[in-house]
Amino acid sequence: MTKIIYDINPELKIFYIIIEGKKTGFYLSNRLAKTFYNYLRVGVLVDFEIAPKRKKIHRIKYYQVAHFNRVISLKPHIVHYDLNKLRKDMQAVLKKHKYYLFIDFEMTMPGYSPGGFTPEIIQVGYVVSKSLGSVIEQDGYYVLPSAQTNLSKRTKRFLQLDELKFYEDGKHYELFYADLKRVIDKFHPKLVVWGKNDISALNDSYRLHDKEALTEDMDFIDLLKLHKDYYNLRDDLGLFKAFKTYYDVEEHQAHDAKDDAIVTKYVFDAFMSYMK
Predict the structure, then answer these.
(1) Taking a C-beta distance cutoff of 8 angstroms, is the pair 203, 211 a contact?
(2) How many whole angstroms separate alpha carbon 145 and alpha carbon 131?
(3) What is the model's pLDDT at position 118?
């Protein structure tokens, strides 16, 4: 639906348009209001889709905005938001990088008693590839936490860890750090993760192990966020749900960092193909 805003209610985050001579109201979810409401005022052109449900506010039912396609001020002419342009820009950004590093971490989890806690990386999985190309190299291994850290029962249960095997096979953080530095120096890749947790865990690891940061947040692509922006998803999408949607294959999630890194590459490839 493409219409000019006739009136607004700033208190209720509702805007009104005229449909068949009748003033009709549309409300925004908190998520949409946070992003778009400051652009909405009388005379602004909005192109949007309507959600199936309606909401009663002060005894009046309003339609819910599912997502916006465009938000444009007409006087002066300013394009505040254009979903099609956003999608094209997204595709252009993703295509310009020569190498990608798909990386995933499993982290320690707090025990069941309350208290301060910082997750530590205890498993890494990664895949290096060219854009939509074959895998150049891949690896996955356990990473030993700092000496003062004990694996909680919750961590071992969730990751199905054999503690003895973990400590026998695990590599010291310094070896992981050197491995990551080697990959970055050799390929200068764009790092691809699914969600912000992996970025936060890596940043924390530099501090916990007193190492100079090898990465900045701008070096990463959050593939989950791209999916939410591209498809206008209201809620987070699980990595394996995305994989099943693209490939129509049920993949069992074993909470293994290497498996997750490989699946992230598959989802990335499918996403790129879909955008074409």
Answers:
(1) no
(2) 33
(3) 87
